[in-house]
Amino acid sequence: MKIILLGAPGAGKGTVAKLLTAYDGSVQISTGDILRGAVKAGTPLGKEAQGYMDRGDLVPDSLIMGIMEQRLQEDDCKKGFLLDGFPRTIPQAEELKKLLSKLGIKLDMVANIDVPRDVILDRLTTRRTCSNVECQEIYNIKSNPPADGDKCKKCGSVVIQRADETEEAISKRLATYNEKTAPLVGFYEKEGLLKTIKGTSSEVVLAEIKSALNV
Ligand code: ADP
Ligand code: ZN
């Protein structure tokens, strides 16, 4: 399947993407994970992106499009892909449209995961992420705590709160979402690709995506 997962930070895009990957082998492409990997590795891309990310601002469209143009042409995308965290602005959506038509790729749908704001806020402030870039397993101190307080159950690395998951950066990210990303709902509605799914459970979201695609 070739899908865009749309939704506020904390809506569960990453979790749903992982479930879909396990289901049919489509590859999850998370621009956030790619950027965090670049920051950790200290690449020029990472150096340029870090300041924006720590403040909860968006990274410039040109940097993101450079990453995605390359990524979508890699072999593993042939089986299908789940775009998680991209596109995030109208210019990115317009550029993506051009890029996909150039590559001869047709999207199956845009799944808009709609979760109430109080649920989102609670999830983001209790979220912890494995500090190992190769792993990045996500935990929740209430519903899915790491081992011994702060150890990743998969790889044993320390589990941390992301710099952009302080209260201040979180409200900034949500404001940025409402201003820059929420307009994509209208964009993809016009394209005839949008399906809005109200769901606080990732399993329910998964089931609705599968049934919309008849798979
Ligand atoms: P979130 O939990 O906010 O969805 P992500 O892991 O998707 O977080 O992204 C983390 C940060 O990386 C964002 O706050 C932003 O700075 C940057 N980022 C990720 N994807 C994009 C994108 N498509 N365009 C611009 N910035 C991006
Ligand atoms: Zn880990």
Please outline the major beta sheet: 5 strands, parallel
SSE run: EHEHHHEHEHEEEHHEH
Helix content: 40-55%
What's the number of structural domains?
1
Secondary structure class reads alpha/beta
Oligomer: single chain
- So what's the overall shape? globular
CATH class: Alpha Beta
Which ions, cofactors or small ligands are bound in this entry?
A: adenosine-5'-diphosphate, zinc ion
User: What is the end-to-end distance?
Assistant: 9 Å
Strand order of the largest sheet: 2-3-1-4-8
Mean pLDDT: 94
Report the strand count: 8
The CATH homologous superfamily name equals P-loop containing nucleotide triphosphate hydrolases
Total of helices: 9
- Portion in beta strands: 15-25%
Explain this structure to me?
The protein is α/β, with parallel strands linked by helices and 215 residues long. The protein is 48% helix and 15% strand. A five-stranded parallel sheet has the order 2-3-1-4-8, sandwiched between helices. Helix 2 (31-41) packs across helix 3 (44-55). Zinc ion binds at residues 130, 132, 135, 137, 152, 154-155, 157.
Topology:
Layout: E1 2-6, H1 13-24, E2 27-30, H2 31-41, H3 44-55, H4 61-71, E3 81-84, H5 90-103, E4 109-114, H6 117-125, E5 127-130, E6 138-140, E7 159-160, H7 167-181, H8 184-190, E8 194-198, H9 202-213
Parallel strand pairs: 1-3, 1-4, 2-3, 4-8
Antiparallel strand pairs: 5-6, 5-7
Q: TL;DR of this structure?
A:
This protein is 48% helix and 15% strand.
